[in-house]
């Protein structure tokens, strides 16, 4: 596993949360039962926003909110497709603790999206997409400190990197080179 | 000829939707016992509730908590008129323990069982502290898992959800910001305490879903007029912390905590008061664990007073999750002639507020 190579990688920039959601919806529309996505990014990077977009694309019941408190939320498909299983693995330390929440039982019939899942869920499937959301980080040395973070409607850009692993993605490439 | 409705039924209520195992006993609107056992300390290590730990803890705690409630109330199971249990919403594994225990008790004693909505029970508990709830009632529920505004037209039969969070619950935002500031779990009490030493105006953090495109007007309400969002606030706190780190400067934890808390409390209270005004609700009941937050109570009291809205806040032991609230709401259902739920219902982790009983 350690020497595993991505079959492809893609990097996309989005200007705001709506654009992130739209991009994820495009990806979600092409997902199938059994697909596994691992989302990485700091608190507030947009992992839940990205998952909301995936849900739109998949056509699951809307109202995707943070799974942090309950660890796992299942959003049933409204279009006869796979359900969306939305997981927050932040508080789970090991693969053993993840076993307790029994993702395997829903994996084959659902799209499974695991926030904070890197290094914990790879063994669930031979294929996966690793999605990393990067927010432009705070001020650089020399810039003035900011004290006003109010919603201004200004751009709030993200860089979204997608790395594909395993046979499922070898011939499937949702985003251009 | 139907029998007259009972006036003060003796009801035993069971709560296990999250990490508190609660058994409460009421006679009508009179509180007789409220025994609660919490698995919170076991969750501290993980920085939050772990459903499997909670489920096991409910199993261990159930019988002792039941015994303690019966002892305190000075009643026996045989004397109880009805049993009640939280059927949802909540963590499914945790709910199942309480539901299974309640069904077993109902089967063993032959008593009628009522499956009760957890969120509406947070409102129903109001009758135990301050007596009957008035007409034109609204409720603001704020806890680790919930942030909701309800319109309560009839406690036992007619409750509407006016607004809810679209991403993180308020209590969850406190936990995540505490994580960003290195303050540990749970975040609510520690941020409330540290905020007292900070300047709430030092940093202007966003008030989620308050822009006109989301709120609209009273006549043409926007999609999220009474909804909450705490995700952008959490991101703003992360950016704020980063800029100090990037410069190698000390992070002003107290000012950030105070400014964060002010942003949460400002938007929660202003949307609750707005909903009351626009839906003719003249009394607002505050419930849920975050009702213990000092700044939330202070600002909500001030804003309700200036809007002419009466505010009811049950005492803290009744605001956090407990069994008495389940018993209190079930007693209201019994007194209103509601039917028992039988033994065929299942726990529903997503039970909507419109399903007051199953």
From TrEMBL, chain A:
It is found in: Cytoplasm. The keyword Nucleotide-binding applies. Its main location: cytoplasm. SUPFAM superfamilies: P-loop containing nucleoside triphosphate hydrolases (SSF52540). Coiled coil: none annotated. It comes from the Bacteria. GO terms for cellular component: cytoplasm. PANTHER family: TRNA THREONYLCARBAMOYLADENOSINE BIOSYNTHESIS PROTEIN TSAE (PTHR33540). This is tRNA threonylcarbamoyladenosine biosynthesis protein TsaE. It comes from Zafaria cholistanensis.
Automatic annotation (TrEMBL), chain B:
The keyword Metal-binding applies. It is found in: Cytoplasm. Keywords: Acyltransferase, Cytoplasm, Iron, Metal-binding, Transferase, tRNA processing. The keyword Secreted does not apply. It catalyses: L-threonylcarbamoyladenylate + adenosine(37) in tRNA = N(6)-L-threonylcarbamoyladenosine(37) in tRNA + AMP + H(+). InterPro entries: ATPase_NBD (IPR043129), Gcp-like_dom (IPR000905), KAE1/TsaD (IPR017861), TsaD (IPR022450). One of its GO terms (molecular function) is iron ion binding. Its cofactor is Fe(2+). Fe cation binds at residues 118, 122, 321. SUPFAM superfamilies: Actin-like ATPase domain. This is tRNA N6-adenosine threonylcarbamoyltransferase. Binds 1 Fe(2+) ion per subunit. GO terms for cellular component: cytoplasm. Belongs to the KAE1 / TsaD family. Required for the formation of a threonylcarbamoyl group on adenosine at position 37 (t(6)A37) in tRNAs that read codons beginning with adenine. Is involved in the transfer of the threonylcarbamoyl moiety of threonylcarbamoyl-AMP (TC-AMP) to the N6 group of A37, together with TsaE and TsaB. TsaD likely plays a direct catalytic role in this reaction. Residues 30-327 form the Gcp-like domain. Its EC number is 2.3.1.234. Pfam families: TsaD. Substrate binds at residues 141-145, 175, 188, 192, 293. One of its GO terms (biological process) is tRNA threonylcarbamoyladenosine modification.
